[in-house]
Design brief:
alpha+beta, 3 helices
């Protein structure tokens, strides 16, 4: 049984690791010449929020429009993760597009077995997401359809709804609770969150091993513990930072970050996930056939 003391010690250790990484990144940024108009996770040639530069367009190739405005806030002055009013519809898309992958500033510290599994997944793309399974952690934000944040302060919850896939959602408890001592592992794990200024901080444990946490297939185990920081920097951008701590798959904690961009006017839409559509070219990969009698995710 995991005690509150152990959870507190674990959270303190991971926060300390994050602080060390953040200081190192800040020093590195100070030493490197800064390139204007280039955001983390946004390809060159794109402006704030991932919008394409030039006369061709805004967002997905349309007019870039005016510069970003300030982040919307509620009556108490706290930043919102959605529109300024319920009438302001929109979803969040990855700044680098749906094909973006998780990239760390330094080489990812894989354990040998994890690196071997990653290499195998590059040849055999048996990703659970393509088979209508929920995608936890970073993978939730790396789809071409995006996500929608729904804040319900009356019950101290934030929900993140997927678009596409199996239409699942993630629940973040904002009421000050800690993680339960005994968790049944799930795709999204158990998330608790709190605000630090304009940043939503989310601590999650209790993941299962049934998903890839990015597009290229980075492995993890049920020991995975993550910290995420969602900072809304303006009305078009959320800067997303993560810290990965999984002693089962990596030799030390590591971090990465990228931007999410606001796609105004888009709402959740009907999506049919065809569970029997196995996409044979992708699914077979380097093999001649795939054994589907096992429920274990490769």
């Amino acid at each position: 049984m995991i005690s509150s003391k152990h959870l507190l010690l674990g959270a303190t250790a991971i926060l300390a690791s994050w602080s060390v990484i953040a200081i190192a990144q800040q020093q590195e940024q100070q030493q490197q010449p800064q390139r204007p108009s280039v955001q983390v996770g946004v390809p060159e040639g794109r402006g704030p929020g991932g919008a394409a530069n030039g006369p061709a367009g805004r967002g997905r190739g349309r007019n870039p429009g005016p510069p970003p405005g300030p982040a919307p806030r509620n009556a108490d002055g706290r930043v919102l993760l959605s529109g300024a009013t319920p009438k302001d519809k929109g979803v969040w898309l990855p700044g680098g597009g749906g094909g973006q992958t998780v990239q760390a500033r330094e080489p990812i510290p894989f354990q040998p077995w994890a690196k071997a599994l990653l290499d195998d997944r590059a040849k055999n793309q048996l990703e659970p997401h393509t088979r209508c399974k929920p995608s936890g952690f970073v993978r939730q934000f790396l789809t071409p359809y995006g996500v929608e944040f729904v804040e319900l302060p009356e019950i101290d919850r934030i929900f993140i709804f997927d678009i596409g896939g199996p239409h699942t959602y993630r629940e973040i408890f904002m009421d000050g609770r800690t993680h339960p001592a005994n968790l049944s592992p799930t795709y999204y794990g158990h998330s608790i969150g709190w605000w630090e200024g304009d940043t939503l901080v989310v601590d999650t444990v209790g993941y299962n091993e049934g998903f890839w946490f990015d597009r290229r297939g980075s492995p993890h185990t049920d020991k995975l513990h993550t910290l995420e920081r969602f900072t809304r920097t303006n009305d078009r951008t959320i800067h997303y930072e993560t810290l990965v701590d999984d002693p089962g798959a990596y030799t030390k904690p590591w971090s990465n970050s990228f931007d999410l961009r606001w796609e105004a006017g888009t709402e959740l839409f009907e999506y049919v996930c065809q569970q029997m559509n196995y996409a044979p070219t992708l699914m077979v990969g380097a093999a001649k056939s795939v054994d589907r009698t096992s429920a274990i995710v490769p």
